[in-house]
Predict the 3D structure of the following.
Amino acid sequence: MRLWAIAVATLLILIILWDAFQTIVLSRRVSRRFRLTRGFYLLLWTPWSAAAKRISSGRGRENLLTVFGPLSLILLLAFWAFSLIVSFGLLQWALGSQLTVPNGVTGFGTDLYMSGTNFFTLGLGDVTPRTTVARALTVLEGGIGFGFLALVIGYLPLISQAFSRREVCISMLDARAGSPPTAVQLLRRHCHDGDEDLRAVLRDWESWSAELLESHISFPQLCFFRSQHNNQSWVAALTTVLDVCCLVITRMKGGPVPTARLTFALARHAVVDLCAVLNLSPIQPPADRLPPAEGKRLESFLSEVGVRLLADETSVAEFAALRATYEPYVHALSSRVMMPLPEWVPPEGVEERWHTMA
């Protein structure tokens, strides 16, 4: 009997089961403590993102990054299964390989094979336990394997449903805020019918932000799932919502400020908590997303549809101060998942053809 191997195998089994329980079943709090899944994703994402940065083609890079989310989830499940099989195999070996083998040759390879057949409940019967302890261990592993496969079968649809719900509102941004989305376009397209139209949009995005916060804290893997359409991402959508609320609260004359404050509070809560989930510190943007020249264009764009912005020093200072409360966080998220932040104003020469899109 090898006591050190028993201790190592038991510890590994407990770590893997607790990590799987936390990831699949437990409704977690926002925490910065180290978790095995977080380390696994960091280890996998670092070379993957480095390879993506070497691809010059934007479409090629995006295709590579799109694969990461679903593939990493499959690899995580495979990593858990493989770790449990090796751990139980090590435990059988540590107990002295108390197995009945057709050719009579035992060893760690046979123990590993026995562990794999038990975990996947194959029931081949060519290798069988011959002692009470080995039989108990076989039953225990079979039960854990059966429960693990059942959890996986229920877990994957949850991820798919959460992803689909997130993408519904993002897909609506083409018509509401342009592609890629901008705060100016969203305001331009929702100020024709008075404040009620804009107020309804902000309430919808408040609900979307709350659902994003809940789903991505419960399933942080969703942060790496990318949208199906070009120029769209959950980071850009969330940032656009914050930009719009920031404008309405500090500079828009006669806008739905109370509604914008509620939406802003929840959207900012989402970006701060998601940074904590991914263990990210806020990063100061290397350049101003709204330099003075773009600020003039922003005012010009909105004035064309009758939206007047306050230009006094107090309003401008409040606008800059409010931006500083969320831009370092969205920049950190953008850098980690490689999803670009949206502009405030659409590029020059872009025509509005959103109402004729297929």
